[in-house]
Design a protein that fits this description.
A: 409 residues, alpha/beta, 10-stranded mixed sheet, 12 strands, globular, B: 154 residues, 0% strand
Chain lengths: 409, 154
């Protein structure tokens, strides 16, 4: 098996339009959650979400935009950043051995929403001709492949909230096995449309707005947590076979060393300590690492009652007495839950935490919950932490649990 | 006085950001990089503009003139058919009575005027272009070339 280096980072997310800006925003403890102001949000019970400061027209011509849902725009820009930071000078041979592995939960949801509005609300039969191509779940990955001429595998994973953790994990397996030399791996999500927000609202998992400060509405691991806050964005990393990266003298931002994947089968939404704990253990086993080597966990930490208590239980089961001394934080308190993009965005956070030695905080943790009694790095970042190995967790509706293990370089 | 071709040229110049002087009747579609998807998109815009419905299988065009001839034929058919269906919309072939939104006919081409049934609905999903004359200079293309349907992130 081969070692897998991370040589490129691309992020467009609430709080930053590149990896460094995004990470700095989290370290500063700035929440990018706020009230949506579009007219249609009047129909929402809760109008809070985390928007990326992203305008597609700054990146694409009008003709291109007609073919690109926001989710694909975000993905293309994040992928381009990742390739640029990786400094790849493509040859045809490299392109043939490069794959695209992307996760998305909802795909081109704005396009789907718009098509239905035309059809049902307006009573028109004039659905836009590119609706299929723009809304399809694999559009974002396909455009990345087209844009850069990448002729290896081009795969889209849709396992709800773990989609992009799975995408990175599966890409990692390919590069590790030598079937791909380079992988663009990550995820994108653009769920801030009326249809998608109403659907989430109906599920009763969204946070209520904090009466004093809307930006503080997502409170992972706190007793007064009320649910998750949806966010939009994309993150793409370049995974590269270690020796290939060294030969071309690429800067290596970190190493992915493990991947754990399990499935809960007890319930479609309710998480299980058992399933999450096994995913953590499998990630450690594939990294050939012992629990005591882990110095930080970027939690799934959605801010729902069920997740945060179960996730705490799973960490305790795996790390035993040491669990309470292990820093665990949920940056979703600041950038929201990016669903299919969450795993990739949080992987970048984890890699930069290792690289900088700064652990980003869990914001809005003022009221402790007896059921959540770990060290969640509450409210302020922690600097000068010498962490060698870190985990990042993504647990999904549908039961797919994914954990990635990352090592400092 | 504008022709069908002039109207189509204006649409292409606008939607595909091409300089109108590059668009002549005998211009091959290959030369301006209009692939099959671009043609599909163009036909959609033309349907809106001329209040026509293209056949379910769009014929293969070689030049812009081919498209103009095709549209002129559909417009002529449309103008012939509604006379048959004066009492009931159902009586007319589906192709000519399908309700379609769009601005009203005033800015259509000279050969696309008579016998048109005004649609009660207004398309919300396409920018309104009402009142724009085809004699007016087309919008300046943002870029001199590059009409590919493919996306290129900057």
């Amino acid at each position: 098996v081969k070692r897998v280096a991370v040589t490129g980072l691309g992020v467009v997310a609430p709080g930053g339009n590149d990896a460094d800006e995004f990470f700095a925003s989290l370290v500063a403890g700035r929440s990018s959650i706020g009230v949506l102001h579009e007219a249609w949000t009047a129909r929402l019970a809760t109008r809070i979400a985390a928007r990326a400061a992203f305008d597609g027209s700054a990146h694409f011509r009008a003709q291109q935009l007609r073919m690109l849902d926001r989710v694909s725009q975000l993905a293309l820009v994040a992928a381009k950043q990742a390739i640029t930071t990786a400094g790849i000078d493509w040859t045809d041979e490299m392109r043939a051995r490069t794959g695209v592995f992307l996760g998305t939960g909802m795909g081109g949801s704005a396009t789907t929403d718009e098509g239905y509005a035309t059809l049902y609300r307006d009573g028109s039969d004039r659905i836009k001709p590119f609706t299929v191509l723009t809304a399809m779940n694999n559009a974002a990955a396909a455009w990345i492949g087209l844009e850069h001429g990448l002729t290896g595998p081009n795969l889209t994973y849709s396992t709800a909230c773990s989609s992009s953790a799975i995408a990175v994990g599966e890409a990692w397996e390919r590069v590790r096995a030598g079937t791909a030399q380079i992988a663009l791996a990550g995820g994108a999500e653009a769920p801030l449309t009326l249809g998608t927000l109403k659907a989430w609202e109906a599920l009763k998992t969204l946070a209520t707005e904090d009466p004093d400060d809307a930006s503080a509405s997502c409170k992972p691991f706190a007793r007064d947590r009320s649910g998750l806050v949806l966010g939009e964005g994309a993150a793409v990393v370049v995974l590269e076979e270690w020796q290939h990266a060294r030969r071309r003298k690429a800067e290596i931002f970190g190493e992915i060393v493990g991947y754990g994947l399990t499935t809960d089968t007890a319930h479609i939404t309710r998480p299980s300590v058992e399933g999450q704990a096994r995913a953590l253990e499998l990630a450690l086993a594939s990294a050939r690492a012992a629990p005591r080597e882990v110095g930080y966990i970027n939690a799934h930490g959605t801010g729902t009652a069920a997740n945060d208590a179960v996730e705490t239980g799973a960490i305790k089961r795996v790390f035993g007495a040491r669990a309470k001394k292990l820093p665990v934080s949920s940056t979703k308190s600041m950038h929201g839950h990016l669903l299919g993009a969450a795993g990739a965005v949080e992987l970048v956070v984890t890699l930069l935490a290792l690289r900088t030695g700064t652990l980003p905080p869990t914001l809005n943790l003022r009221v402790p919950d007896p059921e959540c009694d770990l060290d969640y790095v509450p409210n302020a970042a922690r600097e000068r932490q010498d962490v060698e190995l870190a985990l990042t967790s993504s647990f999904a509706f549908g039961g797919t649990n994914a954990v990635l293990a990352c090592k400092k370089v | 006085m504008t022709t069908t071709f002039d109207a189509i040229r204006a649409i292409i110049a606008r939607d595909f950001e091409l300089p109108p002087e590059r668009l002549q009747r005998d211009t091959p579609l290959d030369a301006i990089e209009l692939d099959s998807l671009a043609i599909t998109e163009l036909v959609f815009a033309i349907e809106d503009e001329f209040k026509i419905t293209a056949e379910s299988t769009i014929p293969t065009f070689k030049t812009l003139g081919d498209i103009a001839d095709y549209v002129a034929r559909l417009v002529a058919e449309r103008d012939r058919k509604p006379r048959v269906a004066t009492t009931s919309a159902e009586a007319a072939p589906a192709a000519t009575t399908r309700s379609r939104p769009g601005k009203n006919a005033a800015n259509g081409a000279d050969d696309a005027g008579a016998g048109r049934k005004k649609s009660p609905r207004v398309a919300k999903h396409r920018p309104a272009r009402a009142g724009k004359s085809h004699d007016a200079p087309p919008r300046k293309p943002k870029r001199p070339s590059g009409g590919r349907a493919g996306a290129r992130a900057r």
